[in-house]
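Hi R.,

Here's the chain you asked about this morning:
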Amino acid sequence: MLKIHNLKAGIDGKEILKGINLEVNAGEVHAIMGPNGSGKSTLSMVLAGNPAYEVMGGDVKFCDKDLLDLPPEIRSHEGLFLGFQYPVEIPGVSMVNFMRAAINAKRKYFGQPPMSASEFLKMMREKRSVVELDNNLASRSVNEGFSGGEKKRNEIFQMAVLEPKLAILDETDSGLDIDALRIVANGVNKLKSDKNATIVITHYQRLLDYIKPDFVHILYKGRIVMTGGPDLALELEEKGYDWIKQQADEQA
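And here is the predicted structure, written out as tokens:
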């Protein structure tokens, strides 16, 4: 589904990703961990097509298409979803109108007719239950006045509506209490299938107690320096990031 080969990228002329190699197949959950400044969020932004980031080398295939040649909106239509670490508020734009516009833009891209209001509201009710999103929140402006946990639930709700092939969740656990974390993680788990894949970017093991990864990758100084199974996250939790730095320095 996703094949990243020797990806180099940065911002303002500074190289941050220094040769990322990663392959993600349908049905898999990959966790990417690493200290601050290692390039985790940069990777997510480059894959999503944020124009502030410059690709300096390498290539990325997404469902056999050259992802780096596609504008951000086409990447989304093709099935790539990014859950932001800090979701923005959009005052004056209701969640209902926002999500109906998003789903109908995707349908138009694939030559399908717009979803009727009644069909869309029915789908909204079904998808809200995935993340226990209150109807009052779904009727308000996008993220306006939402708590941190409500914003993250709203992100997973949007993911449920758009049904992406690949979801990239950038530090979804950031700022969540234990109840919000459980609800968000349960929503992610409910949406998992053998036809989609998820990349979970996180600092901490605690999220991976709820979302079980098939693979764990450690990102350090712009490179994936270690890959393993779920036990790697537990080992990292026990030994800390200084252990990774030591391992990476020894390899260098």
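One quick note: The two ends are 31 Å apart (CA to CA).

Cheers,
M.
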